[in-house]
Amino acid sequence: MEALLITREGIIKYYKKFEPIITVLLRFLLGVYVFSLIHEIGYIHPDLASHLQDNRIPLVVLLGIAFAVLPLTLGYLIMILDITLQYSYHVEVAAVIFVFLICILLFYARMAAKESILILLTVLSYRFGMPYLIPLIAGLYFSVTAIIPVAIGIFIATFIPEIGTIVATIQTPEFTIADMITEMPDTFGDIYSALINALTNTSDWVFSAFLFAMVIVMVYAISRAAIDFAREIAIGLGCAVMIFGYILGNILGNVTVQLQEVILMTLLCGLLTMLLRLFDPILDYQRAESVQFEDDNNYYYVRVVPKIRLTRPNRVVRRIRPQPEEDEE
Fold first, then answer.
1. Are 118 and 144 within 8 A, CB to CB?
2. Which of 65, 195, 213, 239 is the most buried (most CB within 10 A)?
C-alpha cells in the first residue's frame, strides 16, 4: 500500500509541475483523433476532396493544434464547420447537420464549455465500446446538469450510423442554381421522412439516456454524502444500477443489448473509475471525528476526516565536534 501511495504522489507531483504542458498535449491528441475521425466520413464534394486529399495529415495536425490552443467554444465551432464540409457532397444533409450542431453550440456548449466536453467524450466512449464509464465519471466529477451533455452525446453516437441511410435518399447531389430553388423543398421532405424513420430505429438511445441520467444523479448524491467510502459505494451502486437497468430493459423489450457484454464492460468501467479515483485525496476513515461548535446564530455539526499522508521519518542531525585535546602533564 505504501508503494502505491508513493507512486501516486510522484505522478501527482509530476502532473502539477507540468500541468499546462500536459493539458495542452492531451487536448492536442484529442483534437487530432477527433478530426481524423471526422475526415473519414467520406461524403465530401469531389472537388474539395481533390484539394484536401494530399494535405490530409498536415490539415488534421493543424486542426488539432487549433483545438489545443483555442478556447473550447471556438474548437467546437471548427469541428462543426469541418463536419459540415465532410457532408458537402449533399448540401441538404450538410445544412441540416450544421443547423443541429450550431444550435447545440449556441444554446448549450457556449454557456457550459467545460461540461460540454462530456458530449465529445460520450461519442468517443461509444466508439470504444465503453459508454458505461461516462455516467460514473460525470456523477463523480461534474454536477447533476451533466445529464444534458451525456444525453446529447448518446443521441449523436447512436444516430451517426443512420446518417448514411439519410444520405442514400438523396438521388441528385449536384444541381444548378435553378434546380436548387425547385428541387430542394422535395429533397428536404425526403430527408425529413428518412430522419423520422432513423429516429424510430434508434429509439434505444432514449432508454440509455434515462438510465445514464439515473446513474449520474445517484452517483452524484451518494459520492457527496457524509458516509465512509462514499465515492467507492457510489461507483459500486452505479455499476449495479446500470447492469440491473439493462437487464430489466432487455426483459421488457425496451432495449436490445448483449447482456454478457454489458455486464463485463460495466464492471471493467467500474474498475477504471476506481483506478481514476486513486488520484483523488485518500481519506483515513479510522481517524474520523465529529466536531460540534456554535456561535451566536448557529450550532454546527462538522465531520472531520483526515487525509492519508505518507509519514516521513524525522531526521536526527548529530553534530560531531572535535574533542578538546587534554593538556599533557
1. no
2. 239
Predicted model pTM: 0.82
For 301, counting Cβ atoms within 10 Å of its Cβ (0-12 exposed, 13-18 middle, 19+ buried), the class is exposed
pLDDT in tens, 110-148: 888 889 999 999 999 999 999 999 999 999 999 999 999
Taking residue 92's Cβ as centre, other Cβ atoms within 10 Å add up to 21
In the chain, what percentage of residues exceed pLDDT 70?
78
Contacts (Cβ under 8 Å, ≥6 apart) of 190: 169, 170
Phi, psi (deg, nearest 5) at residue 105: -65, -45
Bridge partners of residue 315, in order along the sequence: none
Q: Which residues pair with 307 in a beta bridge?
A: 283
| Cα(264)–Cα(207) distance, integer angstroms | 20
Q: Where are the domains of the chain?
A: 14-89
Q: 234 vs 6, 218, 241, CA distance in Å?
A: 26, 7, 10
What distance in Å separates the CA atoms of residue 113 and residue 75, rounded to the nearest whole number? 10
